[in-house]
Design a protein that fits this description.
single chain; about 500 residues; Rossmann fold; six-stranded mixed sheet; globular
Length: about 500
């Protein structure tokens, strides 16, 4: 299978070269140029997660043997990397509603599902292509991607990883996870601004030909751990298939029965993976795109207008505080009939005017698969409180947005199809918000997030994930803070090229 750019670059790339580049030369995102494979469910039903992943991923990575892919997956998900034997287990809230727990990896967030695999794929791709330049994994994060990238690439031979995060746009626990990261090849910087500022700065570097030439002369090559990299997105397709098969194996759905997936959404990568799964034969009735107060995607799906010209809100679900959802470009490419000229026009309007509008017929096509709603912080807190009160189960604020939006969806549509909500992070990563939802105010007053961790565990009977247990006692190793126009210089400084 070869890969093309959403913006029309005539050159086709093998999977290995697409993964190594991260972003196409014209600034577009890589997508398969061939039709997506159809995945037969029955042969996968009796397999474990790693075996299912190998079968689903292999058609996209034709340069790699099945044995090579299995080896990469074993290194990613095997051993002690994940604390649950099922890797991505389902938790049953009631007969119709299930949580797909994607946070049992080394950083307690769903990004581990992809970023434990990507380093294996990237080093394998370098070997396949004979690439000798040192890959520089350049990453903008709204919270969870950064730590997952740092953890995944930490001390991987022949790589460098550089992470930029918004200085005041992540939780204190997310920030401390990044600031305490060990590793001789890792660099972290806070950016004065929001996630969109960090992401725009990083994407600009991929389009900087002069920088690429300079890095090449010095033996470096940029790549990405964000979901703009196809190698980041690909393994996320797997867990939607796996969740469906687990439901089927448990007798909770019939073979071929369509179900809904609810996905808390910011940069649109996680729900796009679900869309690809549906295109590959997964029986999906509706994909419910759950947004927080930064509801640019909800407006888009409901009206066809994508408009970033709006207030930016810092919410208690910070990983979703995004106004420019990069992965939406891949969906636009499909909606436009794979017409890159139309995609480029929409992106030009977004860059120049901050907004674009798709035609009414496109809105109708989107509505066949997608539904979108949003929840504010008060509704998010209520969802955490009510879920714990009814089921004795703690949600993190992002997953709680998903549950709140799902309740709105059911109330408005009357659709009671069985539904899986993507649970994107451990609730302990957002201890302050979760504690505010489930504990008395007097009990939490004046306590820091780290003081609330054991209090939450004691009060709820849940265990603090191992990666978070001693986080406040680790030495802070990364203290760099830069302006958003200093990202290029920061990369050169980190690489010792200034």
């Amino acid at each position: 299978m070869l890969y093309c750019s959403t913006r029309g670059d005539k050159q086709l790339y093998t999977a290995a070269r697409a993964v190594l580049r991260g972003l196409a030369r014209d600034g577009g995102l890589f997508v398969p140029s061939d039709p997506l494979p159809t995945i037969a469910l029955e042969p996968l039903a009796s397999l474990g997660y790693i075996e299912r992943a190998a079968a689903i991923i292999q058609p996209f990575l034709e340069e790699f043997s099945f044995a090579e892919i299995e080896t990469m997956l074993q290194r990613a998900y095997g051993g002690a990397n994940f604390s649950h034997p099922s890797i991505a287990p389902l938790h049953r809230l009631n007969d119709d509603l299930f949580l797909l727990e994607l946070w049992h990896g080394p950083t307690s967030a769903f990004k581990d599902m992809a970023l434990q695999f990507l380093p294996q794929l990237l080093t394998g791709a370098a070997a396949k292509t004979g690439e000798n330049a040192t890959p520089v994994i350049l990453t903008a994060t709204s919270g969870d991607t950064g730590k997952a990238a740092l953890e995944g690439f930490c001390d991987v031979p022949g790589t460098r990883v550089i992470v930029f995060y918004p200085e005041e746009g992540v939780s204190i626990i997310q920030q401390r996870q990044m600031a305490t990261q060990e590793g001789s090849n890792v660099h972290v910087a806070a950016v004065r601004g929001n996630f969109d500022d960090a992401q725009a700065g990083v994407k600009a570097l991929f389009a900087d030909r002069a920088l690429a030439d300079e890095l090449s002369r010095r033996g470096f090559k940029l790549s990405s751990a964000n979901s703009i990299n196809w190698g980041r997105l690909l393994p996320q397709i797997v867990y939607y298939f796996s969740a469906y098969l687990d439901l089927q194996n448990s007798g909770l759905i019939n073979h071929g029965e369509k179900i809904n997936f609810v996905v808390p959404t910011g940069n649109f990568g996680n729900i796009l993976a679900a869309y690809y799964a549906a295109r590959m034969g997964l029986p999906v009735k509706k994909l419910i795109c759950a947004a927080n107060r930064n509801n640019v995607l909800t407006e888009f799906f409901n009206t066809g207008l994508y408009n970033r010209n709006r207030p930016f809100y810092r919410t208690i679900s910070p990983s979703m505080d995004i106004l420019v959802s990069s992965n939406l470009e891949r969906l636009l490419f499909e909606l436009a009939g794979r017409n890159p000229a139309q995609v480029k026009e929409w992106i030009r309007f977004l860059q120049e005017k901050g907004a674009y509008r798709v035609e009414h017929d496109t809105v109708k096509v989107m509505a066949e698969m997608f539904w979108s709603g949003w929840a504010d912080d008060d509704e998010t807190i209520a969802a955490i409180r009510n879920t714990y009160g009814e089921y004795r189960y703690l949600l993190d604020p992002h997953t709680a947005v998903g549950k709140a939006v799902h309740e709105k969806y059911r109330a408005l549509t009357g659709d009671h199809a069985k539904t899986v909500i993507a649970a994107t992070a451990s609730p302990f990563k957002f201890a302050e918000s979760v504690a505010r939802a489930v504990l008395p105010p007097a009990q939490i007053a004046g306590r820091s997030a780290f003081e609330l961790l054991p209090l939450l565990a004691q009060s709820t009977g849940m265990s603090i994930p191992a990666p978070l247990q001693k986080l406040d006692r680790l030495p802070v190793r990364h203290r760099t803070v830069i302006n958003k126009n200093e990202i290029r210089r920061g990369v050169l400084d980190f690489l010792g090229l200034n």
